[in-house]
Amino acid sequence: MNASQPLPKFDPSRIPVLGVDDHLAGVPLDRLTPAALRERFRHPPVWMPEHSVEKKFTDRQPALAAVLLPLVMRDELTLLLTQRASNLSTHSGQVALPGGRTDESDRDAVETALREAEEEIALPRHHVEVLGVLPTYVTGTAFIITPVVALVRPGFELRPNPGEVADVFEVPLGYLMNPAHHRRHEVEFDGVLRQWLSMPYTDPSDEAGDSEAKERFIWGATAGMLRNLYRFLSA
């Protein structure tokens, strides 16, 4: 789920970069291990999220939602992300975290995130170890999102739902937790100045047989929640 609503005729990747946060230190690699993450969530530091509420651009009623931040336990932890199907009416083609709107039958945000990950990409629950949650993130489209952070044991076989997901890929967590890859953008729309982060990543995999590597443009709410994870892990 990428809960940042694209503005009309708006391509975020074409908006100029105002700055790169390479003056900030990356999270040390010894904090990006399964054991270190378990300990961090068991004994969280005092910290403040950097991104919490986007500027509204819709009058729709607020809705609860949750996303999963699935950290795959490979030699180096990676974050599992999706690219939404191009035929969707909203957020088509965008990089997203597995997740979606909370159902009445969901016990809590963790249940929402696990259920949505199963429905979108068939991520089996028995491969997932939930570590904890980050503070809620409110999008400009009035989704109140709870990010659920989890470790994922390798050996799963994903089956993306073609009606929702065009592709699934992984990005090294160390790359995302290094602010040298965090870019700042802003654009004025309807008289309101809107700002966001992007974390473009060039995917070296060539599973589709393409001659060129793909750039995955991570931005908006997804990038904002990842920035909060950076603040949590670097505090």
Structural features:
235 residues, alpha+beta, Nucleoside Triphosphate Pyrophosphohydrolase, 3-stranded antiparallel β-sheet, 17% helix, 30% strand, globular, disordered N terminus
Structure description:
- The chain is of the alpha+beta class and 235 residues long.
- The chain has a single domain, classed as Nucleoside Triphosphate Pyrophosphohydrolase (Alpha-Beta Complex).
- The chain is built from 4 helices and 13 strands.
- The chain has helices spanning 34-42, 109-121, 173-176, 220-234, and strands spanning 19-20, 63-72, 78-84, 95-96, 99-101, 128-133, 137-138, 143-152, 165-172, 183-189, 192-198, 201-203, 214-216.
- The strands form 3 sheets. Strands 2, 3, 4, 5, 6, 7, 8 and 9 form an 8-stranded mixed β-sheet that branches. A 3-stranded antiparallel β-sheet has the order 1-10-11. Strands 12-13 form a two-stranded antiparallel ribbon.
- The chain is globular and about 50 Å long.
- The two termini are 27 Å apart.
- The model is unreliable at 3-7 (pLDDT under 50).
Short description:
By secondary structure, this protein is an alpha+beta fold.
Order of SSEs, N→C?
Answer: EHEEEEHEEEEHEEEEH
Compute the number of strand runs.
Answer: 13
Quick one: CATH superfamily? Nucleoside Triphosphate Pyrophosphohydrolase
**CATH top level label:** Alpha Beta
Q: Do you know the CATH architecture?
A: Alpha-Beta Complex
- N-end to C-end Cα span: 27 Å
Q: Percent helix among the residues?
A: 10-25%
Rg calc: 17 Å
Estimate nothing, just give the exact number of structural domains.
1
Proportion of beta-strand residues: 25-35%
